[in-house]
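In response to a reviewer's request, we include the raw inputs and outputs for one of the modeled complexes. The two entities were modeled together in a single run.
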Amino acid sequence: MMTDLWIRLAAVVALLGVATLGWLVLQHRRRPRPVEHGSGLEVIAARVPVPAADGQVVVQFSGTHCSACGPSARVWRSVTSAPDAFVEVDVTEHLELATAFGVLSTPTSLVFDSAGRLRARVGGAPSPTRAREALSLVAVR
Amino acid sequence: MTGTTETGIDPRGPRVGAGITSVLLIAVILLGGAAGLVVLAVVVASFALGAAAGVGRTWQGALYRSVIQPRLGPPADLEDPAPPRFAQAVGLLITAAGLVLGLLGVTWAPPVFAGVALVAAFLNAVFGFCLGCEMYLLLRRLSRPTVA
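The model returned the following structure tokens for the whole complex.
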């Protein structure tokens, strides 16, 4: 009976360990990364109103059942400044845009440069540091 | 979401609730047998309450507001209550499947389904990661492939 309990306890510890490891791997894979070739902002602008911006445009794909999307949008709004624009696209309304940009989960954010070219991609809700990192990936080019 | 109003729930509430649920699910796995089923039934009932009335009206939500929130102070931001409610429905589906199979005599089912729910609840509690959100769009895209 005691050994049975130890086996169960080990299973719980292993399960939580694997879950944590999976989360860490996912976080690493979702760090801001530059995009070489991708669809342009005009694909999104054709379907969703995109405010005119002289700087970078951040487009966040959000969903109805997404609890991380609100906080993520707040982070983007806090790090983007005047010439930049921030746009949210609801994936339930625009599944075709999610497909076009290969978005598999919400929130996923795309950073476009001032010419409307896709330059960086961030998966999940970024920390302010990561969000700035993504914007700087675009700025240096 | 676009156009969300600034009224909502304290986002730390559902995370504390997920922590409490995680502890109960660990108890389900450790206890096993009839005792495990009883604890699993409590979890299923809690998820049912959360899915039907919203996370703010569960006993975990009440416990958070009366014991923990007064010590933390007011939240910095409020959150839309719809996503955590959806998560409660997903949790209900998984744990109810384990409970029903367990009652039908499938002895491996309660700990396995409790384990699946535990992963989701644990990630939500510790990292604020929402497994339901991740699955939602993936399932939508798989069920209705569209060409842009």
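As requested, we also summarize the result in words. Strands of chain A lie at 33-34, 57-62, 85-90, 108-112, 118-123. The two ends of chain A are 64 Å apart (CA to CA).
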